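Narrative of activities, Objective 1.

The group set out to show that a structural description can be obtained from nothing but a protein's sequence at a throughput compatible with the screening campaign. Below is one input-output pair from the validation batch, recorded exactly as produced.
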Amino acid sequence: MNLNIQVDHNRFRQIVKGRIKQNLKKYLTQGEMIGKKGKDFVRIPLPQIDIPHFRYGTKQTGGVGQGNGDKGTPLGGDPNDPTSGEAGNTEGQHTLEVDVTLEELAQMLGEELELPRIEPKGKKTIDAMKDKYTGIRSTGPESLRHFKRTFKHALKRQIASGIYDPDNPIIVPVREDRRYRTWKEYHIPHSNAVIIYIMDVSGSMWEEQKEIVRIETFWIDTWLRSQYKGLESRYIIHDAVAREVDRETFFHTRESGGTMISSAYKLCREVIDKDYSPYDWNIYPFHFSDGDNWSREDSMECIELLQKEVLPKVNMFCYAQVESPYGSGQFLRDLNDHFEGSEQVITSQVANRDQIYESIKTFLGKGK
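Output recorded for this entry:
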């Protein structure tokens, strides 16, 4: 790529990133963007941004038209209609969709919300191997041949030997021109983490409440994946009973039963005990509900489960209360009464999409 084009492209990318950061709070509340997620990229629509284009000079602007017509005949429109073809006086709207990597998105999220880097618990880590390209050498496998360096050496050789012809610039590399990338293996300790998402799907949780959960979990996922090289996600839904499901089912299940939150906490405990030793994993349960539990007794059982069997094994426990017209919201008050001042139990109240931003900052701002 031409150096000037590369500089312009990089400058344009910086403009795009700046525009995304400027409007990040707006993007945080939009579910449409999440639907455009690829394997490693998210496609974001950016309105009112100039798309780079070629600008032609003024030389040789004349030309000959084709077809019938006399001098002065207007092109297009009805010549008898005085308003036909009138020029508008407002600027057109340009929308450009750009691909942003999840890594870049996580970086913007951290900068905008001033999130500290996660400090993994002092548990065992898993070593992973990583190849890092460190230089260039004259021997190596053909799959690692550096074509640009090879071409450069061939050009130098032909110029130095006097065989280079500017009128017929054919560059033919020979064996001694070939250059290859070199690499070195590194051992990298990777902290592993698991997110256990829990959602109330009882009759009082409507589609808007589930959409808020979907948006918030996307951003939580994006940030934690930038902090841990090994991250797994598990999904639990509950009404009066709890069951583990896949991601698709998690966001599209519609139930109509009552609510017993303790059933979800018991299943969460079983998942941790079976698959995620706290000595090997950093564990993050996130529970989303409208706070309408079956009984006071069940809420007290939940608090006991948290105190004795969940909190000793996790980095932190996060509870987001998504307000609905039918939920009492009592469970949030119960948690705050029993865990006031705790740095391990973090709660937030999400009345609508506009409060997703502060909820994420509340959860992830602890750096635990």
